[in-house]
Amino acid sequence: MPPSRQISHVPLPDGFDPDLANADLLPVPPEKRDWSWINMATVWMGMVHNIVVYEAASGLMALGFSAWQSLGVVAVAYGVLFLAMWFNARPGTKYGIPFCVLIRSSFGPTGAQLPVLLRGFCAVFWFSVQSYAAAQAVDAIMSTLSATWAGWTVAFLGMQIKTWLAMAIVWTLHGWITSHGVHRIRNFELIAGPLVILAGLTATIWALRVGHGLGPLFSQPSKLHGAAFWNAFALGVTGMIGMWATFAVNIPDLSRFVRTQRDQVVGQAIGLPLTALIFTPMGIITTSATILMFGRPIWNPVELLLALNHPVITVLGGLTILLATLSVNVVANIMPAAYDLINLAPRRLDFIKAGRLVLALGVLFVPWLWFDRADGIYRILTIISSLLGPVTGVMLADYYVVRRQNIAVDDLYRRDGRYAGARGWGHGGVSAMLIGGAVAASGFVIPALAPVSALSWFVGVVIGGGVYIALARGRRAVADGTSAAVT
C-alpha cells in the first residue's frame, strides 16, 4: 500500500516499515507529552476502584485471613506492583513509545507479536467481564425506574433481553469515551477517578454508622497460623498481582504521555498503592454493615444495591458502579488492546478503529458465562500471572541490564534493524518467556511443585529475566570469540 493510503495519513520517517509503524505507534514528541502527576494519579484512581478489586478482599478473607491481614496482603502486592510499574514505565516516558513497540527490542518485530497477542487477549477478556458487571448495574437502574424494562425477561442466547439492552448502553458509552482518542480518555479520568473515591467515602461513612464502627469483619480472627499462613500469604499476594500483571507489561502505553519521570512515579505512587490501601478497607467496612443488616456478607455491589431496595440508592449506586467500570475499562483494557491490535495491522487500524474492534470482540467473549464463576476467573488470573511474569522479567532485564537504559528507537520500526534478530525473532525474548512461563506454571501440572505456582508471578519474573540475561551474555561471548578468531 502506498504511503498516501496509510491509515495514519502521516508520512513515516525514511526506512520505517509501514507494517511496524503508523501515527499511533510512533514516539510521542516531548512537546505533546502533557500528562502531569495529577493525570497519572487520577488514571490509577479510576482503575483501582472497580468491582473485581472491591471483591478481592472477600477472596482473601475466604482463604482465612483476618481483615487486617488482608490489608497486609494488599500492601505487599501493590507495593511490588508499584516497583515493577515504576521501572517498566521509565522507557515509555523517556522515548514516548508504547509497549507493543518497546518489546521489539527483546522479542524482535515478529516475536513481539506473541506477548502482544497475550496481553491483548487478556485486555479484551477483562473489558468484557467488567462491562458485563456495569451492564448489571444499568439493568438495576433501569428496572428501578421502569416497570416495563423490568418486565423484559424473555431470554435470548442465554441472557434476558433487558440485559442485552443494558450491555448495548454500556458498550455505547465505552465507544463515546474512546471516540476522540487518548486525550478524551485523559480528561474523563481526571473527573471519574475523584468522583469514584467520593462515592466510596460516602458508602463507607454510611457503613460506619450502621456498624457503629468498623463492623464485625474487622473483629473476625485469623484462621491461618504458621506455615499455612505464609503459604496463603504467598498465594494471596500472587493473586492480587495477577489482577494487574497485564498492566505491569504495558504501562508504557500510559507513561509515554507523561511529561517527566518524576510525574510518572509520583502519580503512580499516589494512584496505585495508596489508593488501593484506602479502597480495600472501604469494601471490608461496607460489607461488614451488610452482615448486620442482612445476616450475611454481600460483596457484590450490585447485589447490595438490590438488597437495600431503595430507588434513590439503587440509581446513585448503580451510576457509581457504571462510572467506576468505565474508568477502569477505557484505560486498563480498551487502550492497551487497541494498541495491540494496531500493532498487528498498522496499515488498516488507528486508535479509534481499533477501539471499536475491541468493543466487538468483547461481546464475542460471552461474559455472562464467566462473571458468575469466580473460581474460573481466579484460576485465569493465576495462569495469566505465570505467563506475563516472564514478559515483565524480560522487559526489565533487557532495558536495565542488556541495553543499559539506551535504545536506538528508529531500529524498533525496522525489520532489518539491530533488534530484528533471526528473521524478526529477536534475541531470546521468546525463549525466555516460554521457559519462565513453563517453570511458573509447573505447579498446575505437577502437584509436588504447587508452591511454585503460589509464587507464579515472582518465579516468572526471575526465571524469564535470568534466562534472557544468560542468553544475551552467551551471544556476546560467541560474538567476542568470533571476532577474536577472525583477528
UniProtKB/TrEMBL annotation:
<dbReference type="GO" id="GO:0005886">
    <property type="term" value="C:plasma membrane"/>
</dbReference>
<feature type="transmembrane region" description="Helical">
    <location>
        <begin position="377"/>
        <end position="401"/>
    </location>
</feature>
<feature type="transmembrane region" description="Helical">
    <location>
        <begin position="110"/>
        <end position="129"/>
    </location>
</feature>
<dbReference type="Pfam" id="PF02133">
    <property type="entry name" value="Transp_cyt_pur"/>
</dbReference>
<dbReference type="InterPro" id="IPR045225">
    <property type="entry name" value="Uracil/uridine/allantoin_perm"/>
</dbReference>
<comment type="similarity">
    <text>Belongs to the purine-cytosine permease (2.A.39) family.</text>
</comment>
<feature type="transmembrane region" description="Helical">
    <location>
        <begin position="228"/>
        <end position="249"/>
    </location>
</feature>
<keyword id="KW-0812">Transmembrane</keyword>
<feature type="transmembrane region" description="Helical">
    <location>
        <begin position="42"/>
        <end position="65"/>
    </location>
</feature>
<dbReference type="GO" id="GO:0015205">
    <property type="term" value="F:nucleobase transmembrane transporter activity"/>
</dbReference>
<feature type="transmembrane region" description="Helical">
    <location>
        <begin position="354"/>
        <end position="371"/>
    </location>
</feature>
<protein>
    <submittedName>
        <fullName>Putative allantoin permease</fullName>
    </submittedName>
</protein>
<feature type="transmembrane region" description="Helical">
    <location>
        <begin position="71"/>
        <end position="89"/>
    </location>
</feature>
<keyword id="KW-0472">Membrane</keyword>
<feature type="transmembrane region" description="Helical">
    <location>
        <begin position="315"/>
        <end position="342"/>
    </location>
</feature>
<feature type="transmembrane region" description="Helical">
    <location>
        <begin position="188"/>
        <end position="208"/>
    </location>
</feature>
<dbReference type="InterPro" id="IPR001248">
    <property type="entry name" value="Pur-cyt_permease"/>
</dbReference>
<feature type="transmembrane region" description="Helical">
    <location>
        <begin position="270"/>
        <end position="295"/>
    </location>
</feature>
<keyword id="KW-1133">Transmembrane helix</keyword>
<feature type="transmembrane region" description="Helical">
    <location>
        <begin position="422"/>
        <end position="446"/>
    </location>
</feature>
<feature type="transmembrane region" description="Helical">
    <location>
        <begin position="452"/>
        <end position="471"/>
    </location>
</feature>
<feature type="transmembrane region" description="Helical">
    <location>
        <begin position="149"/>
        <end position="176"/>
    </location>
</feature>
